[in-house]
Design brief:
121 residues; Helix Hairpins; 4 helices; metal-binding; cell membrane; metal ion binding; transferase
Amino acid sequence: MSPFKGQTGLKRILNAGGYSLAGLRAAFAGEAAFRQLVLLNVVLIPLAFVFDVSRGERALMIAACLLALIVELLNSAVEAAIDRISLDHHPLSKNAKDMGSAAQFVALSLIAVVWLVILLG
């Protein structure tokens, strides 16, 4: 058992919720890409309810949008951890940041593919 682990039960769940909200606030305040994705989701998610698609298709359209937010949060976390370790240029740091960026590119591509297949298919 890790000495860094704290509470258990309901207290742990409440603490985790607070940490999650703090992470969302930090991402929104400090990451322009996250704010842009939030705006994209504010547009696309309601738009998913406008189109005449099945519930499953609508859920897939929304899930793809939310996945991009998740990937951006993880990408930002990797970048913050790398920057915390060192701001020096290092090939491994560059690889880690580039891979996070690539993951976000794939997530955004997924939005486009899912929406196009559903709406044009």
